[in-house]
Amino acid sequence: MTGSEAIAVQEVAQGGGLERAPKQRFHRLEVAAVIEETHDSKSVVFSIPEETRDQFDYLPGQFLTLKVPYGDKQLTRCYSLASSPHVDPEHKVTVKRVDGGRISNWINDVVKAGDEIEVMAPAGLFHLTDNTPAGDIVLFGGGSGITPVFSILKSALKTTDRKVKLIYANRNDQSVIFRDEIKAIAAEYIDRLEVVHILDSVHGFLTQPMVRQLVQGHEHGEYFICGPGPFMDTIESALVALGEPGARIHTERFVSPPDPDESEAAAEEARAAAQGSTATQFVVELDGEVHEVAYEKGDTLLQSMQKADLDAPASCEEGMCGACMCRVASGETQLGLNEVLSAAELAEGWTLACQSRPLTNDVKVKFPD
């Protein structure tokens, strides 16, 4: 990571004056427990020190970013919190083994209670909030994509009176994560929660006609979708065809970031492509406040905001998680690595602050409230 990508700084009073101190990006957390969920998935429970507890407050559906030494590299991975801040006392991520997956296999084979892992504070825009519109909540989870929707499910049942429907797709009966916990919650909320299991071995893959049938009676609800790409595309297409507004359809997509050397090569290519930029400043609207931010050629929007001590949302900083999504209201920008924004989102003006550079002097970007 280059100096211009350094972590944000905050001003602290010391010795009668103001002095810059680094804002810690990763925190070394102890593993409190490792839980075997299925034959190919385990949950990792983290112990949060009291002095950093406030920084690890989270919304149901958000994720943690882990940094793991692997050989001579430092690899980062984002894993959704399966725990609920309204129900569970611990922070728990669940990781399914992936064929050839370096970190997923390491977690399933090696990690044990007492180990320490570097973890970033929770982030992500795929979550339930107090501002979520009324109506039923329909959750689609595919495989390990159950993790964020399960967090949302528990919080929605605990903090609202809305009805919830979970459609959970898996390869077979042995692959169902949280089986017993889901059954217990369904029994507790028998009048508000409906659970439908879709098994590839029995029902085949989820299809658009199946989706249309499953959401009958829940029109104009709130939809949360997480799972493999084709699974998510099928559901989203079916909902759009039914006329459900995009603002009520929430998706979460994760891909593994490139290795550090590949990431730096991509970043250098993006910097070179933006050398024609004439920008010396840009405007950002963040948390309802408007800021004019100085721009140094080569920096991303996020790096410029960090230099200006603006606490912009961010996590992986590699174009993979979407935590730094913002909308370009005016001006021209150039987006580098993007593994999260869809063509529709790009057409609507969304960009990633960690990968976007201003090209003109009239750029204004706005972060979601």
Unreliable stretches: 1-22
How many domains comprise the coordinates? 3
Overall CATH architecture of the largest domain: 3-Layer(aba) Sandwich
| Residues in helix, % | 10-25%
**CATH class placement of the largest domain:** Alpha Beta
Q: What is the CATH homologous superfamily assignment of the largest domain?
A: Nucleotide-binding domain of ferredoxin-NADP reductase (FNR) module
Structural class by sheet pairing and helices: alpha/beta
What's the main sheet like? 6 strands, antiparallel
CATH topology of the largest domain: Rossmann fold
- Using only CA atoms, what is the Rg? 21 Å
Q: Note the total helix count.
A: 9
User: How much beta, percentage-wise?
Assistant: 25-35%
Globally, the shape reads globular
Termini separation comes to: 29 Å
Mean pLDDT over the full residue set: 86
Strand order of the largest sheet: 6-5-8-3-4-7
